[in-house]
Amino acid sequence: MNIFICDDDNLICEQIKTLCESYYTEHKLKRPDIYIFHSGEDILASDIKPDIVYLDIQMSGIDGIAVGNSLVKSYPAAIIIIITSFPEYLDEAMRFHVFRYISKPVESKRVMRNLEDAISEFNSIGGRIIVKCKGTTYILSAKDIIMVEVNPHCRNLTIHTVSDTYTTTQTLASIKSMLPSGSFYQSHRCYIVNMNYIMSYNNSRIYMENHLYADIALRKYNDFLIPIQHFLQHCASLLIRGGFMNLILYYLFVYLIEAIILWLYCNRIFTSRKNTFLSLLITIGMFSLLIPVAILTNAALNAFCSFIVYLCCIVLNYDSKPVWALFHALALTILMALSEGLIAAAIPDITIYAFRDGNIHSSAFTFVILSKSVYLCISQLVTRIFSKDTVNNASIRKSTLMLYLIPVMSSIIPFLLAIYVSTVNCLALTLLLYSYVWFCCSQSIS
């Protein structure tokens, strides 16, 4: 932090500097860099970024009003505290959003109180909060806070971070006022949670990382669903921040798997109008049209568009009656949703992990791999009922056996890779395993 003191009276400058240093010493904080200027020309000539500025109004040369306007234009986040014995200048000073006003002669208590407020404001802007614990003051990064809870018996407040806990007598309201809005939510009169660390939740409790949990007030549950869904949808839209092309590649991976599954399903039930390679290309091309829809992160719209794509692929590539085409398109849409629901129910944490983080996260790929593997298994089991080929020879039985074993492998191995190895290796192995499934099925189809 950089503190500027600008006054043409050197005694005032030294007094404020001494008081600032005393505050940081008293609260056991790291001292900031304090710079003293005696004219408006000197402070404007500095190339150091100011965080807190003590500024006299009436100075020789450039006055404090002009200096304040220039500083706000160059450093909009600067916190300016006016020092003057002429209150008539305050109206003009308010135009550049003065934080506090100190009259001359300077009162020590007022300077200390205003400095504390200014530091709180600075930390709030920078995503940090001030916590006082047993005579020691800590500055915590808001992004590291998992949750805040109040002990109803002793009224102490505990702040849980990723690495430590801090107990303070500050009120929950005061802590909440310092936390940045958007990722924090007060689920109960005794709890504030950081939605970045939510693992799962039900109608009475939110489960957080580090084996923590917070209660949800009964009347607040429905209200909680709105911000958490908006938060997850926002994070999903920013799932891969590496750029727009990376986002396209991610969804291309998802729909490539779905296209292969549909192609395998249809070739075991219907008679193809086109050769194998052409029908696969058409299917992949149709599924690529779903990418813009997926980016919108609207589940209902995505399901409806998937149904339309399934229907179009069946009608274009295979000999099928319209009724049967509609039936199988609807069945596959339901099976796809069912497979994702099964994984979400079996591993509830993975859906939060998959769509919570703002960068490439291995659990997002793991969620896709697991759900699509279940989808592949179920869809292939369904084909046993509607299969156009009733021949029961050894080669088909062998291919069918491999077809059911490979998805199991493609669920377990990439899941382990996602934990211990990179996402790239996980993705590569998954594509390899699905290629082998494709080969096995091609042999049985032919």
- How many E-type strands? 17
* Unreliable parts: 237-243, 351-361, 389-404, 417-425
Shape: elongated
Number of helices: 16
The average pLDDT score comes to 76
Helix content: 55-70%
Q: Specify Rg, calculated over alpha carbons.
A: 31 Å
Briefly note the structural class of the backbone.
alpha/beta
Structure in words:
- The chain is an alpha/beta fold and 446 residues long.
- It has helices spanning 10-26, 40-45, 64-74, 90-93, 108-125, 172-178, 221-237, 244-269, 276-288, 291-295, 299-317, 322-346, 348-356, 362-386, 394-420, 423-445, and strands at 2-6, 33-37, 52-56, 79-84, 100-103, 128-133, 136-141, 145-150, 157-161, 165-168, 184-188, 191-194, 198-201, 205-208, 213-215, 271-272, 318-319.
- β11 (184-188) and β12 (191-194) form a beta hairpin.
- It is elongated and about 95 Å long.
